[in-house]
Amino acid sequence: MKVFALLALWATLFHQGYSNSLDSCRGRCGYGTDNSFSCQCNTSCERFRDCCSDYTDVCKAGATSCKGRCGEKYNSQNECHCNSKCGQHNNCCSDYPDLCGGGGGGDVITDAEIMAISETLYVLDSNKASASELIIDPQALVPDSQTSSKNDLSSGHLFQYLDEEALFSRPTYAALLAVLDNYDRMTGQAEDFSAQQLVEQEAFVKETMSNTELGRELFAFLYTKGIYASEQAFIQDLTMMWFGLYSRNNNKMDSSGFEHIFAGEVKGGKVSGFHNWIQFYLLEKKGKLNYYSHSFNGPWTTYPDVMGMQFMWDGYFKQVGSAVIGCSPEFDFALYSLCYITRPGKQCRLSLGGRELIIQTYTWENSFYGDGKKYIGSAFPATP
């Protein structure tokens, strides 16, 4: 009798455990309908009302988290991913490094390593402006509470002097100048590049990343961390990541990471993006940009410096346009690339001359390139 009772208890427990595996969405979110299970875990189950009881908690609430998902196989229906290759495709969930021990590449990339490589890039920026080549006058400093006031508190230009002959003749500056004027700043207006303009985009990436010691150092770092298998793969990915078009407005292919960050855009009646000092200088010189004030000026006493500025761009206002001032194009491009690749959609802590700089990055979530890779949505110096 005791033997029979034990067998009955074992059968009950076994049945319960088996049923639980059939009635749960653990490890099944997004996969197609499988009739061998008693309930389903994809978007169709909401329509057919056959979702598992934990579908909402596991698949919907946890759709942007790696909790319980570390090492899972790639599934195109998932909003973000939690496997060792998600960093290469810029589609990791935001908590992947913390929960799964990944830093976005083949190996773990720690904050300390990112700060160390940023210091190396800082030292290698031989093309930055010197104090004799660039003179700025920050003028009015306003508190954060007044950045939206739209008051012109500075009578003069921010950029008082730039030695264009010395700086703009250098290959990376010339490559940047060639691409900055290729864009329509209004979102909702499709970009249409000529063959020459596409060549200029590729030339900019190669000039800054392949033809400078700074760019080669960034590639070497990412290569040793298993993110890129070759320099060719590195250059190709940067070109798509930065210059690939997507739609910010009206379903038009009207934007890219480069246009948003370096050239600047107008959306919803205000300036969007615009985080490059050379573009600021060029527009101010032409009389198309009026500098109002600044709400932040970094602790650096030499270039590059970091500022958060208020300005009017030909009728459109920017409340806080932060930028690294006086750096070379390759340094600007390398810092944003480093942060986006290693900390997509997160804050990225850098060290420049022993002082901390935080870059905030955002992924573009509405369209992809390659095998599910995410374009750069935005990146900028996060001012206090």
From TrEMBL:
GO molecular function annotation: hydrolase activity; lyase activity; metal ion binding; polysaccharide binding; RNA binding; RNA endonuclease activity; scavenger receptor activity
Cited PROSITE patterns: ENDOU (PS51959), SMB_1 (PS00524), SMB_2 (PS50958)
GO biological process assignments: immune response
Keywords: Disulfide bond, Endonuclease, Hydrolase, Lyase, Manganese, Metal-binding, Nuclease, Repeat, RNA-binding, Secreted, Signal
Entry-linked InterPro entries: ENDOU, EndoU-like, EndoU_C, SMB_chordata, Somatomedin_B-like_dom_sf, Somatomedin_B_dom
Record Pfam families: Somatomedin_B, XendoU
EC number, UniProt record: 4.6.1.-
Gene3D superfamilies, per database record: 4.10.410.20
The protein's name: Uridylate-specific endoribonuclease
Taxonomic lineage: Eukaryota, Metazoa, Chordata, Craniata, Vertebrata
Gene that this polypeptide is encoded by: endou
